[in-house]
Please model this.
Amino acid sequence: MVSTSEEDVPTKVRAAADHMLESIAIWYESKRGKKGDVFANVGAVGLYLTEFLATGFPLERNLYATDTQLKNASGRKARSILAEHGETRKYPAMGGRTSRGTITKAHELAIIINAVGDATGVGEFSVDERKALAFLLQQWFVERIREDYFDKKKITADLNPDWSIRAVVASLLQAGRQRPGNAAGALAQHLVGATLKMRFAGSGVEIGGINDESYTTADQQTGRAGDYQLNDTAIHVTMSPTLELFTERCRENLNNHFRPRVLVPSDQLARAYTYAQDAGIDERVAVQSIEDFVGTNVEETALFSQAEIKSRLRELVEIYNERIEAAEIDMSLKIEIPENL
Model:
């Protein structure tokens, strides 16, 4: 779509856009989850549907969709539209997924655009006027994507390379705990994943089990023995261990000839040890603090060199942030990299 100058937009086009956005905003806000998040495909649907509006009106189903999918929908397409509006930051591939939920959202939005468009005379607009209207609506969705995806405040913590890495990790976990919902759990899991990738990438060790799925993706959905699976070891990462983790998941690991390793915050170690004993598998399951696991691996890869530790700490956070971009909707889970790194 060709960029439209704000000054060149006819009054009737701007009025139609304003009326549409009143209803679109209500629809958009209805898609927020209990924690205030909006899935990336909501914004992507807005980008796609407004693109089709530039092609024709009303938005008949066969204009923008096949039987089960949005036409021309892809992560690349979403990023291309964002770039037309000056937004070049990486948007997740899921922005282009055409699941049943996505196509349903598209139908809902098309109904709104058609209803308000009929009331405001969009059917009588010229092609250029319709393109200008589409551009204004698209710009609104780009702003929502910036607010709800790109510009959410990142996690900040003391990342002092002069500290032990264990202390740095403890600071990060504490920052995660101060966030609502499951932020701490997601942070812990992806931090461990980043550690494993940094430690074993290029080492010849099979790293296929160092997945980058969302924190909420269950092990059973992926066929893995744990959050991460390296050779015959199943790694479970949790901020709050439960007896069921040991009696069910770890026992299942042992029955399938896996070596279970449970990583928990240091203040949960005693609790985890007790559960392992209660399950009768305390001699067969490794229990370790997340702080020590990450800290030891980072310092070993740095060969215990102070200068190299600083470099490795930055690398760890960069890999972690890449995992968040690839797997999660909530970009506020990313860690702010301080100037001292």
About this structure: DSSP finds 13 helices and four strands in the chain.
